[in-house]
Amino acid sequence: MNLANSAATFTQAAFERKSAKTDPGQFDLALKDLETAIEIVQAEEGDHVAP
């Protein structure tokens, strides 16, 4: 899952209509996916930094 997809999933879980029934764990999972994607991007950026 890429960062854009993770952000979209997080946004949907956080801000979708309150009348919709969602599993509270969906928000936590989306947040975890977003955190993981950010860590991957940061690690990749660290690989490209000149010493």
Automatic annotation (TrEMBL):
Superkingdom of origin organism: Bacteria
Protein name: Uncharacterized protein
